[in-house]
């Protein structure tokens, strides 16, 4: 039933994106920022959009439909995404073949689909282009799911600490300094080792290691907001604490949420590559493909297309997100959030 | 000042106790001993072997006994034996420190001046094409995965051009340079992008201050302003970033060490991960946190040295 959850998640995400877009259009400030951002980084936005589209296409899947061999019952009863359908089951070889090759790389046996594998095939004969496209979804999942963990967690604890101060602040500060004092890669590894492997576990572990930085920013910002006149006025008028936080504090932190999301994203995807190399990453990620290349470069003649395709895909996404992140920060808030030291 | 250092030190101790508590929760309460045994001995091991493993490593004792034992042993630096091969962890820590330091220290010593020099240069030409090109280069450099730097460096410089040995390590002074050259080069190149971007922002921000305008009005040259005035005033953010990096000199680099076969602490951590060696991993996390907290306190003290306006109290 995993594919149903995935389809629902896509529907929720798309609906959420429309809702956000509508809210942005209604607010002058956010609309101005969006226009400014589009003017500054059109290419990066388009590139990120393409990656997101590929990721979404790979998340919508259903059972049935064409594209399978007549007798292949397993494939016919397996949910397949749009990306899977672009590459039918027969689009496979027995082993390595170079991009656009007509024969196998080692041995020279003729291929089933000569000249049609744009990035060649891997050791099991799978089309590398398909693997790279499917890796997009993993990369977005790492960044997206982790941010879904990080942002609410950091907002909740950061606002509580900054707004209420006192004992709550002390407790939150203690947890933050404890987590921050462990080198993040080691903490990440320890968490995954204790929780076991799997995509959700990896995202939770990354969430635990990366919420501290954002929480600190939220805490500081809330601390400042609390002293501002309009919040003092709201309090004097007898508005409840919960309402002050929801109506007056939270909206004034939203720009930080957007900036953090973009800045966090590339770091998360890059750390997954390291985890993949340690053997505790997520199956099918670009990191895993790069990891396999260690053996492939030692072969003679070398197999270069697997590494190149995965690295190029990873590099493209990270570069676009990094460039976008700089612009988002410049547009929304050039001062508060400098890079973490 | 002394009162501050003491208070800061006490808070550091509390933080370390918190770290140990977290490790206890992760490795003794959360992790299932049977699962750990299976991963260490093998999935298909007979139940009595698994039970034996759990007893040998003390994971069957009551929770509070394990808690006390965990705290006492960590705080007295009695690290015990590895879960994987029963080697004493303390000895391996001592053996691994030298190889780790022998490549992290040169990386640090070369990387830091390079990053600061480059970012001063780029900030000097701020708002010009040199600046823009510098920022783009930095973003490009930091968008490449460390894995790719290592694999690419080994392949290109080691295998194709034969400039360096592909991997290996020998601590004897006459050949060590051959072995650490490539890891150091990769370490420097891999870190310089994000460093330059960070320091450039700091420097550019600093050049917009009043004292820079005053210095220029008095006829001070641009180069002198950058090297004498801006650099000095930017010391606080620089120190913050530098000192945070120092603990990693001790824990080594997981990736670089195991790719290049340097028998340091990073490679030891990787081995611990791959061998499901929980006790070694626990010690590595503890050591890392200890170094971090220690250097954090030193950072705070060093602020007073570089900026007389900072008063600790």
Question: SS-based structural class of chain B?
Answer: mainly alpha
Question: How many H/I helical runs of chain B?
Answer: 15
Oligomer kind: heterodimer
**CATH architectural grouping of the largest domain in chain A:** Orthogonal Bundle
CATH-defined fold name of the domain at 94-275 in chain B: MetI-like fold
Q: What is the annotated CATH architecture of the domain at 94-275 in chain B?
A: Orthogonal Bundle
Low-confidence runs of chain A (pLDDT<50, min 5 residues)? none
Order of helices and strands of chain B: HHHHHHHHHHHHHHH
Structural class of chain A: mainly alpha
Report Rg of chain B.
Answer: 24 Å
Query: What profile does the largest beta sheet of chain B have?
Result: none
Let me know the average pLDDT of chain B.
Answer: 84
Count the domains of chain A: 3
Span between termini of chain A: 44 Å
Taking the alpha carbons of the first and last residues of chain B, their distance comes to 6 Å
What does this structure look like?
The complex is a heterodimer of chains A (341) and B (313). Chain A is 70% helix and 1% strand. Chain A is an all-alpha fold. Chain A folds into 3 domains: 2-92, no CATH class; 93-126, no CATH class; 129-336, MetI-like (MetI-like fold, Orthogonal Bundle), CATH 1.10.3720. In chain A, strands 1-2 form a two-stranded antiparallel sheet. Chain A is elongated. Chain B has 313 residues and is mainly alpha-helical. Chain B has a domain at 94-275: MetI-like (MetI-like fold, Orthogonal Bundle). The radius of gyration of chain B is 24 Å and the shape is globular.
Please give the structural blueprint.
The complex is a heterodimer of chains A (341) and B (313).
Chain A: H1 2-26, H2 28-40, H3 42-57, E1 61-62, H4 73-76, E2 80-81, H5 82-86, H6 128-164, H7 166-180, H8 184-195, H9 199-226, H10 229-236, H11 241-249, H12 254-278, H13 286-298, H14 305-332
Antiparallel strand pairs in A: 1-2
Helix pairs in contact in A: 1-2, 2-14, 3-6, 3-14, 6-7, 6-9, 6-12, 6-14, 7-9, 8-9, 9-12, 10-11, 12-13, 12-14, 13-14
Chain B: H1 2-30, H2 33-41, H3 47-56, H4 63-75, H5 89-124, H6 129-142, H7 146-160, H8 176-207, H9 210-217, H10 222-233, H11 235-245, H12 247-251, H13 254-260, H14 265-274, H15 278-306
Helix pairs in contact in B: 1-4, 1-15, 2-3, 5-6, 5-8, 6-8, 7-8, 9-10, 11-15, 13-14, 14-15
């Amino acid at each position: 039933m995993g594919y149903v959850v995935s389809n629902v998640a896509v529907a929720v995400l798309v609906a959420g994106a429309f809702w956000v877009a509508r809210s942005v259009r209604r607010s002058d400030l956010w609309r101005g920022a969006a226009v400014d951002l589009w003017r500054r980084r059109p290419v990066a936005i388009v590139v990120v959009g393409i990656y997101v589209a590929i990721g979404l296409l790979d998340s919508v899947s259903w059972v049935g439909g064409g594209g399978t061999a007549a007798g292949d019952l397993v494939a016919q009863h397996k949910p397949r995404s749009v990306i899977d359908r672009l590459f039918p089951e027969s689009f496979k070889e027995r082993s390595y073949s170079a991009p656009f090759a007509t024969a196998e790389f080692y041995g020279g046996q003729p291929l089933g689909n000569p000249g049609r594998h744009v990035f060649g095939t891997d050791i099991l004969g799978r089309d590398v282009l398909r693997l790279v496209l499917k890796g997009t979804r993993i990369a977005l999942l790492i960044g997206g799911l982790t941010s879904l963990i990080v942002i609410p967690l950091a907002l909740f604890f950061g606002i509580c600490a900054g707004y209420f101060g006192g004992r709550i602040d002390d407790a939150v500060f203690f947890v933050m300094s404890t987590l921050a004092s462990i080198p993040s890669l080691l903490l990440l590894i320890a968490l995954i080792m204790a929780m076991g492997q799997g995509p959700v576990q990896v995202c939770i572990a990354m969430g635990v290691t990366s919420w501290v930085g954002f929480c600190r920013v939220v805490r500081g910002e809330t601390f400042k907001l609390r002293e501002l006149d309009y919040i003092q006025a709201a309090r004097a008028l007898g508005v409840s604490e919960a309402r002050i936080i929801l109506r007056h504090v939270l909206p004034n932190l939203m720009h930080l949420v957007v900036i953090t999301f973009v800045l966090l994203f590339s770091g998360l995807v890059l750390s997954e590559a390291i985890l993949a190399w340690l053997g505790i990453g997520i199956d099918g990620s670009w990191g895993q493909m790069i990891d396999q290349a260690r053996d492939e470069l030692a072969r003679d003649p070398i197999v270069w297309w697997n590494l190149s395709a995965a690295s190029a895909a990873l590099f493209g996404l990270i570069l676009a997100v990094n460039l976008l992140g700089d612009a988002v920060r410049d547009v929304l808030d050039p001062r508060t959030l400098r890079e973490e030291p | 000042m002394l009162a501050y250092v003491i208070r800061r030190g006490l808070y550091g101790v509390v933080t370390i106790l918190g770290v140990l508590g977290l490790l206890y929760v992760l490795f003794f309460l959360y992790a299932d001993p049977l699962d750990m045994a299976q991963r260490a001995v093998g999935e298909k091991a007979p139940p009595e072997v698994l039970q034996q493993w759990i007893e040998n490593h003390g994971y069957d004792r009551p929770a509070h006994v394990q808690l006390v034992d965990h705290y006492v042993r960590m705080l007295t630096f009695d690290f015990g034996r590895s879960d994987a091969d029963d080697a004493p962890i303390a000895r391996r820590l001592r053996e691994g420190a030298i190889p780790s330091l022998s490549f992290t220290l040169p990386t640090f010593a070369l990387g830091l001046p390079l990053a600061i020099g480059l970012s001063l240069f780029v900030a000097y030409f701020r708002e010009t094409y040199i600046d823009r090109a510098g920022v783009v280069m930095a973003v490009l450099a930091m968008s490449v995965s460390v894995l790719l730097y290592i694999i690419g460096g080994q392949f290109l410089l080691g295998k194709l051009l034969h400039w360096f040995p592909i991997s290996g390590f020998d601590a004897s002074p006459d050949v060590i340079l051959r072995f650490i050259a490539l890891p150091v080069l990769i370490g420097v190149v891999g870190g310089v992008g994000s460093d330059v971007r960070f320091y450039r922002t700091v420097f550019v921000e600093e050049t917009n201050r009043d004292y820079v305008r005053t210095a220029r009005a008095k006829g001070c040259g641009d180069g002198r302003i950058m090297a004498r005035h801006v650099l000095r005033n930017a010391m606080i953010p620089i120190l913050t970033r530098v000192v945070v990096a120092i603990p990693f000199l001790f824990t080594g680099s997981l990736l670089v060490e195991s790719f290049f076969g340097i028998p340091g602490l990073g490679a030891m951590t990787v081995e611990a991960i791959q061998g499901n060696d929980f006790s070694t991993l626990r010690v590595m996390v503890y050591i890392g946190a200890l170094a971090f907290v220690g250097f954090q306190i030193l950072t705070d003290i060093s602020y007073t040295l570089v900026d007389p306006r900072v008063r600790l109290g």
